[in-house]
């Protein structure tokens, strides 16, 4: 077999954890090879070993059939291996070209011919359909474009084996389509790609083969044309996975959340929510469907007290919560699972245990007269960690060290445990793997059935369709349609989301 990369029986340990235990990955020339695994399975570690960032304790790496000793990324580069990391490593104030040549200037001491470099970057961009402007400043281009700059950086250094670490996690659906085209054109030109992902749809769409790892163990390699999402999911999590969320019909009761004629401006002062009306009742999940940028974030921020409302009202039961502080809103019975779990959800450098009482630490039994009672805090945290299946070595581990899925489970545990009347779940499963998604969906439905009102914001139509009892379609700052998931389909929702409300107007 013509393998460009062979990683044989790789073992990589970190203190207290075996991140890779006897994993084998063989990549054929010209293929797109998926590396699939849940959060924390060991995917990034394995690729960091290949890229020379980590040294394995055991195992062997062969590049194009030759044994290789990849002790640092420069050696990886010289072997034609390039990596597009999950977090980009670009200098904001530099141009695209400056970033690309950075660190690979022709000779020490020699001046860089930036014109020449721009020309080369433009040619590479053209050849692979990247559509990048070599002279643009990084800070002026979109996240999707920045990712392409990272791709160009590897190509400029002559990479013909490209590693993509969860590249689609940061992209919009449109950008994902474009990236898939780019990957296809790369392999057409003879490049080989290792694609780390936990999105089964993407694997089915672009990959030739797929290697699955679970909890640090290699599970095996399958041909994508001979498998299906259900099989891949169960290989990944080690048990059957339910894709369609099981739930009984909702039993909505009294109205908990009621929003009238709400107007909210964004940070630039532009009106984003333009007289919006919305109600969520006890015992129902209302999903907001819409294309990103139609006022969804501003709506959520206004309800939770993170952003000022210009006009209109927000009531929880009979109580006006319009323009209260976030803490007051929270005390009124609103829980918030935020879109940006790093910015608003967690204090990353605090232990996960303390993060789990972030909303209540100043109350008894966690504090008395301003002094925190750590024993009570950790007792509570440990029981939540168990109940919400947060995988962490212990409650004292910093939140930063946990995988995204486990961070999210911790936030949900904390927010749900407070027995709120209203749960606002903003993109609760973004970037998570199927196992964690299934868990979180189940929890939200359980909470609904306990009589809580749930407001769900998601840009994944699948999720909105599966989880919601009612769907409010948001367009241009308003809810322009109110539909039931069983009475609509993705195509109709797509039309509504593009602003074609006429055909549903009668149902409002
Ligand atoms: N530098 C590190 N030090 C200690 N533990 C680490 C380090 N990097 C990763 N880990 C741990 O190794 C395991 C695998 O992590 P990772 O390879 O990032 O998983 P994945 O990319 O599949 O989500 C996790 O339990 C993670 O916490
Ligand atoms: Mg990773």
CATH topology of the largest domain: Rossmann fold
Small-molecule components bound: adenosine-5'-diphosphate, magnesium ion
Report the span from N to C terminus.
61 Å
Number of helices: 17
Q: Rough shape?
A: globular
Strand order across the largest sheet: 6-7-8-3-9-10
How large is the share of residues in beta strands? 25-35%
The residue-averaged pLDDT reads 90
How does this model look, in words?
This protein has 3 domains: 3-237, Rossmann fold; 248-333 and 421-508, Rossmann fold, CATH 3.40.50.300; 346-419, no CATH class. It contains 17 helices and 22 strands. It has helices at 43-50, 73-78, 96-101, 114-127, 143-156, 173-188, 200-206, 229-237, 296-304, 326-331, 341-345, 352-355, 374-387, 404-417, 434-449, 461-467, 490-497, and strands spanning 3-14, 17-28, 32-36, 58-63, 66-68, 81-84, 161-165, 192-197, 209-214, 217-223, 255-265, 271-281, 285-289, 309-316, 319-320, 334-337, 367-368, 371-372, 422-426, 453-457, 470-475, 478-483. The strands form 5 sheets. A 6-stranded mixed β-sheet has the order 6-7-8-3-9-10, with helices on both faces. The protein has a 6-stranded mixed β-sheet with strand order 16-19-20-13-21-22, sandwiched between helices. Helix 15 (434-449) links the parallel strand 19 (422-426) and strand 20. Helix 14 packs parallel to helix 15. The longest helix has 16 residues, at 173-188. Mean pLDDT is 90; it is low at 503-508. The structure holds adenosine-5'-diphosphate and magnesium ion (MG).
């Amino acid at each position: 077999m013509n393998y460009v990369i062979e990683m044989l029986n790789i073992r990589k340990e970190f203190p207290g954890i075996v991140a890779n235990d006897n994993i084998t990955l063989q990549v054929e020339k010209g293929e797109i090879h998926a590396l699939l695994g849940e959060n924390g399975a060991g995917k990034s570690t394995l690729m960091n070993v290949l890229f020379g960032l980590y040294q394995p304790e055991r195992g062997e790496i062969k590049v194009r059939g030759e044994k290789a000793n990849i002790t640092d990324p420069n050696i990886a580069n010289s072997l034609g291996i390039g990596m597009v990391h999950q977090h980009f490593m670009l200098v904001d104030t530099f141009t695209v070209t400056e970033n690309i040549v950075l660190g690979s200037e022709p000779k020490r001491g020699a001046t860089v011919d930036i014109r020449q470099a721009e020309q080369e970057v433009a040619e590479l961009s053209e050849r692979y359909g990247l559509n990048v402007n070599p002279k643009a400043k990084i800070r002026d281009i979109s996240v999707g474009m920045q990712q392409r700059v990272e791709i160009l950086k590897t190509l400029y250094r002559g990479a013909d084996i490209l590693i993509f670490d969860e590249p689609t996690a940061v992209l919009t659906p449109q950008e994902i389509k474009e990236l898939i085209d780019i990957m296809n054109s790369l392999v057409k030109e003879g490049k080989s790609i290792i694609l780390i992902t936990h999105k089964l749809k993407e694997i089915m769409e672009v990959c030739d083969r797929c290697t699955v790892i679970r909890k640090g163990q290699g599970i095996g390699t399958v041909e994508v044309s001979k498998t299906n999402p259900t099989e891949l999911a169960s290989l990944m999590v080690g048990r059957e996975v339910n894709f369609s969320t099981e739930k009984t019909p909702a039993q909505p009761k009294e109205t908990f959340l009621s929003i009238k004629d709400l107007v909210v401006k964004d940070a630039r002062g532009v009106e984003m929510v333009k007289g919006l009306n919305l109600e969520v009742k006890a015992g129902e999940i209302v999903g907001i469907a819409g294309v990103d940028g139609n006022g969804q974030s501003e709506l959520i921020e206004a309800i939770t007290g993170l952003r000022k409302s210009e006009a209109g009202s927000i009531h929880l039961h009979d109580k006006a919560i319009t323009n209260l502080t976030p803490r007051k809103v929270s005390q009124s019975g609103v829980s918030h699972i935020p879109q940006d779990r790093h910015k608003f959800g967690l204090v990353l450098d605090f232990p996960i245990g303390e993060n789990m009482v972030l909303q209540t630490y100043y109350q008894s039994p966690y504090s008395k007269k301003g002094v925190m009672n750590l024993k009570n805090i950790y007792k509570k945290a440990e029981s939540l960690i168990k109940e919400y299946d947060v995988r962490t070595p212990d409650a004292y581990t910093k939140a930063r060290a946990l995988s995204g899925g486990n961070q999210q489970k911790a936030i949900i545990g904390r927010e749900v445990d407070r027995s709120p009347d209203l749960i606002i779940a903003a993109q609760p499963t973004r970037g998570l793997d199927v196992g964690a998604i299934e868990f979180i969906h189940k929890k939200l439905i359980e909470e609904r059935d306990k009589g809580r009102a749930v407001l769900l914001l998601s840009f994944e139509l699948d999720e909105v369709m599966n989880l919601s009892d009612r769907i409010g379609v948001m367009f241009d700052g308003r809810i322009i349609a109110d539909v039931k998931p069983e009475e609509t389909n993705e195509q109709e929702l797509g039309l509504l989301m593009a602003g074609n409300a006429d055909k549903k107007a009668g149902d409002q």
